[in-house]
Amino acid sequence: MVAVTGMGVVTSLGQGREDNWKALIGGRSGIHPITRFPTEHLATTIAGTVDFLPSSNDGASALTFELADLAAAEAVAQANVTAGDFAGPLFLAAPPVELDWRHRLSLYAGAREHNGAMSLIEAARTAHALQLFGESQFATIADRLAERYGTRGLPITLSTACASGATAIQLGMEAIRRGECDRALAIGADGSATAEALIRFSLLSALTTQNDVPEKASRPFSKDRSGFVLAEGAGALVLESLESALARGAEILGIMRGCGEKSDDFHRTRSKPDGSPAIAAVRAALSDAGMAEDAIEYINAHGTSTPENDKMEHLSLSTVFGERIRDVPVSSNKSMIGHTLSAAGAVEAVFSLMTMREGVLPPTINYDTPDPAIELDVVPNVMREAQVSSVLSNSFGFGGQNTCLVMAREPV
């Protein structure tokens, strides 16, 4: 059995578990106008950026590292594991990496002639340029984290779109179950709210353009939902075999009961209309946990606020849980923090565990116009006190990558 002994989180709501949880149950939004770069010609001008961090203006790579580092530091400290000697593998969910604009401009400035490809190639051969490329390699962030925390073996960096954070946790669980290690560090981090990202998602018609009142823009499951809000953040879990955690007297924060995944080959961005891959992922997670559908007491929804995803998630949940889904609380943290992409599954796993520990269900805010086609108890607008002992957390990503996690408050 896999236990959680440490948790860390950073979102647009703040740094650390305490600040995030206070804001989350208070129904406060972290979404605001973008000030990091010009937005005059962009359709969407709001996001859940983490502008309070020092590296927020240093590019996606630097910011993703800082987010991952802060979340990991909080999780490792809570687990009471020796800093620099974690003694277990690292699984990092991170966004696809490309040269940040500061790197591109630095490379361009190093060219003797600013209008020739050969000049740029020569500049790329310099030691300075090689350092820039090194900072932008996909595995660089994980390598730096592995060195800082003393994780063992080759650190794994993965990118499975919006399911990435949950996939990192799944890999950590499976490594412990196979007996390869006693503990693992699973992190999801994403600091890639850039102009390019906004343009790409806008071209897919995935982002909301309701910029006038940023805190009201993310409206999961509402009839007037119009797209997701891009955001940044990180979540980290210290996963440990229950035997190891008990032997060293660690506090058990929760139990990772099961995980399930299922690919969807219908479309690169759209979900299969019948919801069958999402249904299969939920059922696989329940089966892996050895739990029946009626054992789940709360669902942390993927809940992106896009017309199609919310409809598909309702279809999948109503298929798996039947009429009972009307009575199971299903709320979306993204109504407050936005969509943290690669980090979402890990961030929401932290919030799911805190939901069980604190006995409070975070609300789905901005739920002012119910969608009659989506009959769910979304914990509308105001948090609710409730003791729940089991949670399902959904992560459904572009490219047909679906991962679901089942968590419990205590060992069974």
Automatic annotation (TrEMBL):
Pathway: Lipid metabolism; fatty acid biosynthesis
UniProt-listed Gene3D superfamilies: 3.40.47.10
Entry GO CC: cytosol
InterPro entries on file: Beta-ketoacyl_synthase, Ketoacyl_synth_AS, Ketoacyl_synth_C, Ketoacyl_synth_N, PKS_Beta-ketoAc_synthase_dom, Thiolase-like
Keywords, ordered alphabetically: Acyltransferase, Transferase
Keyword Transferase in record: yes
BP GO annotations: fatty acid biosynthetic process
Segments forming domain Ketosynthase family 3 (KS3): 1-409
Molecular function per GO: 3-oxoacyl-[acyl-carrier-protein] synthase activity
EC number, UniProt record: 2.3.1.41
The keyword Zinc is assigned to this record: no
Family, similarity comment: Belongs to the thiolase-like superfamily. Beta-ketoacyl-ACP synthases family.
The protein, known as: 3-oxoacyl-(Acyl carrier protein) synthase II
Organism of origin: Nitratireductor pacificus pht-3B
